[in-house]
């Protein structure tokens, strides 16, 4: 039997065996994230935003100062950063992604309940993170996704826990996992069940979850969607449901990023991925996966994938040559 914190039973018996920030440093913002103002139009690239406008220059100056002071890594292309269309090596996972003590900008944003917070891409682009929404209660788009959940739910990368809390409030057995201590603490404070654990580590209830959630861009975790999909298939019960949120533009990107507060504090670099729906469906294919549902809200896009009942995840993924089809 699996128990999360506070001893609540989650699954059945195991089978045998802020303050407002100064407006002066306006960041450049990726076009897939229209919520925040983008950098100056004349600095925009072909997709509508540029890699480093006014704010970017400011960051470079600050980075330069830091470099002279010593130990922090300068922002530059990582020697093993994925090339356009290339694969991220998963042999080396930057550690620890998202959170690093002390001065972890993600933890600080979660404690404050607000940004600004960004994923800073290796080339300087800033992808805004919606900390305010993550720290609020579940909204309509969230509820539409949660309403599709079946059985016990595993929320991968649960962040501050609004989805875990909403599901628990509806009486659904739910566990959040996250590598960030601040995220787990926030989720527990909301009354949810949560573990500080990577999705790639050993987890309770492997192969028995009814639904696995990868919302808010979490299909990017680990920077290798095929590997993450395989992991989700291993976590799900045969016939279980994976609900993933995709980027609402046509994108299939592996990248190196840092969590960055736009004010000079950032995490170490780690691999990430961004996938639109078409890209996700190229990776999640029969015989292991079939598309169960696809829906959009005014600002977000979601896909539900059903794990097959008759195929072993690893065998199915191995049988597929990467990039085939
Ligand atoms: C884009 S945020 C998602 C926010 C979250 N869904 C929410 O509702 O607030 C990504 C989250 O994934 C977590 N994360 C990153 N890598 C992870 C991993 N390998 N295993 C579990 N969680 C991870 C981060 O700590 C972060 O909280």
Descriptive terms for the model:
4-stranded antiparallel β-sheet; Rossmann fold; disordered N terminus; 325 residues; single chain; binds S-adenosylmethionine; alpha/beta; 9 helices
CATH superfamily of the domain at 140-251 and 273-320: Vaccinia Virus protein VP39
Strand order of the largest sheet: 7-6-5-8-9-13-12
Bound ligand species? S-adenosylmethionine
The CATH topology of the domain at 140-251 and 273-320 corresponds to Rossmann fold
Helix/strand class:
alpha/beta
Which percent range fits the helix content? Answer: 10-25%
Which strand-content bin applies to the residues? Answer: 15-25%
Terminal Cα span: 41 Å
* Stretches with pLDDT under 50, minimum 5 residues: 1-95
Mean pLDDT: 77
Shape: globular
Instruction: Specify the CATH class of the domain at 140-251 and 273-320.
Output: Alpha Beta
**In this structure, how is the largest beta sheet organized?**
7 strands, mixed
CATH architectural designation of the domain at 140-251 and 273-320? 3-Layer(aba) Sandwich
SSE topology string: EEHHEEHHEHEHEEHEEEHEEH
Structure summary, number of beta strands: 13
Number of helices: 9
- Structural Rg: 20 Å
């Amino acid at each position: 039997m699996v128990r999360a914190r506070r001893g609540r039973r989650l699954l059945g018996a195991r089978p045998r065996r802020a303050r407002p920030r100064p407006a002066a440093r306006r960041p450049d913002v990726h076009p897939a994230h229209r919520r925040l103002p983008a950098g100056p139009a004349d600095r925009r690239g072909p997709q509508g935003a540029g890699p480093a406008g006014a704010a970017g220059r400011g960051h470079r100056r600050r980075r330069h100062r830091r470099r002279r002071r010593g130990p922090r890594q300068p922002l530059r292309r990582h020697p093993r950063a994925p090339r356009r269309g290339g694969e991220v090596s998963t042999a080396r996972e930057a550690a620890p992604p998202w959170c690093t003590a002390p001065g972890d900008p993600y933890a600080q944003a979660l404690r404050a309940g607000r940004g600004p917070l960004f994923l800073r891409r290796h080339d300087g682009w800033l992808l805004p993170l919606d900390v305010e929404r993550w720290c609020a209660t579940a909204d309509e788009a969230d509820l539409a996704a949660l309403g599709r959940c079946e059985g016990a739910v595993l929320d991968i990368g649960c962040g501050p826990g609004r989805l875990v809390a909403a599901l628990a409030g509806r009486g659904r057995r739910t566990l959040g996992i996250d590598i960030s201590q601040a995220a787990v603490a926030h989720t527990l404070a909301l009354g949810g069940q949560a573990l500080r654990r990577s999705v790639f580590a050993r987890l309770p209830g492997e192969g028995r979850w009814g639904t696995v959630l990868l919302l808010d861009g979490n299909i990017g975790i680990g920077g290798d969607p095929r590997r993450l999909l395989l992991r989700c298939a291993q976590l799900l019960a045969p016939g279980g449901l994976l609900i993933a949120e995709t980027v609402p533009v046509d994108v299939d990107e592996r990248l190196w990023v840092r969590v960055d507060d736009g004010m000079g504090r950032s995490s170490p670099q780690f691999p990430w991925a961004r996938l639109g729906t078409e890209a996700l469906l190229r990776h999640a294919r029969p015989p292991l996966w079939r598309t169960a549902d696809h829906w959009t809200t005014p600002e977000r896009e979601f896909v539900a994938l059903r794990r097959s009942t008759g195929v072993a995840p690893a065998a199915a993924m191995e049988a597929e040559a990467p990039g085939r089809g």
